[in-house]
Amino acid sequence: MRASGVIYTSLTGPEFPSETIALMTINSALTHAEAERLAARIAELEHERKHLLAVIEILKEASSSLHFIDILQAIARKLGESFGLDRCSIFLGEKGGRQVRLVASYEDPTIRNYVVDLERYPELKRAMQSGETVFIPDAANDPSLRHVKGELINRRVKSITVVPITWRSVAIGAIFLRTYRDGPTFSDADVRFVQVVASLTAQSLRNAHRYERLAERTHDTSEQLKRMELERVALLAFLRRLLDAFGQPEGGGSWGEGLLPKASADELDRLVGVAMAVIQEEAKGR
Q1: pLDDT for res 23
Q2: What pLDDT score was predicted for residue 11?
Q3: Phi and psi dihedrals of 140, rounded to 5?
């Protein structure tokens, strides 16, 4: 006997009533539900695997450069490619909190250091001021974005996510992501992934900032050593000319400085100070 695609053996004969058939049907339904759950779990694990691979790629990019612009551009590109985004941009805050600078862009990598007024982007302003993630699932119908509704509809924008980049609990920038209406849904797991990326971005910026400060200090130290060497050369040249002008004391004896009165000694100290000031200025001009 065949029913619902299941072949029943002789156990379904007269000595085994319809209860056996019902039991096997239930088991078949449970097996189908388990298969669906397994498929969903496999899809979830595959999604997580892609996230982990993206994190690894971002860490490799961040470790290969100490210039923060290159790091941010690599992160924007990787996020845009991973999610198939309409837009992925990274902003850094300005002093005063009224403006931010667009420093990296997935859709147009040539855009660098573009000043943006936060009043034009309320979702970006909210993320920067609150330090919390802003997620707008239906951007075209969101009341806060009604001033750009036409543009969002024309671009077929679906959702907008803004994840702040924080350092010591202060938002120093933000990652802005925008999805297509026909594209995949931006899930909670995706938002958490971008938050992890934002944390990595903050650390990368900190490392790049430390490198640049160290490079500046090294340059300053080199300049200081160069000035000290020029001062030494100028001093020796001054003393040589001074000795050549006055020559050696008559009879080859000592200079007899102990015979000078205290006022004369103080005056000599003053002149030495003046001479050192002149030497330092001369070193700066070389």
Answers
A1: 56
A2: 46
A3: -65, -25
* Beta carbons of 163 and 133 less than 8 angstroms apart: yes
Structure tokens at 227: 């000035």
Give the integer Cα–Cα distance in Å for 218 and 224. Answer: 10
Average pLDDT over residues 43-58: 72
Measure the CA–CA gap between 252 and 219, rounded to whole angstroms: 48
Most confident of 29-33, 59-63, 189-193, 259-263: 189-193
**Separation of alpha carbons 13 and 11, rounded Å:** 5
Give the start-to-end residue ranges of the domains of the chain. 1-64, 67-207
For 205, other C-beta atoms within 10 Å of its C-beta total 20
Domain 67-207 class in CATH: alpha beta
Q: Counting beta carbons within 10 angstroms of the beta carbon of residue 122, is it exposed (0 to 12), middle (13 to 18) or buried (19 or more)?
A: middle
Helix (H, G, I), strand (E, B) or coil at 14: coil
Q: How many CA atoms lie within 13 A of 26 on its CB side?
A: 6
Asked if residues 166 and 202 have their Cβ atoms less than 8 Å apart, the reply is yes
Query: Which amino acid is residue 27, in one-letter code?
Result: N
**Residue 5 DSSP one-character state:** T
Of 100, 249, 261, the closest CA to residue 174 belongs to: 100
Span 94-106, pLDDT tens digits: 877 788 999 999 9
Which residues have CB under 8 Å from 133's CB, separation 6+?
Answer: 127, 161, 162, 163, 164, 191, 195
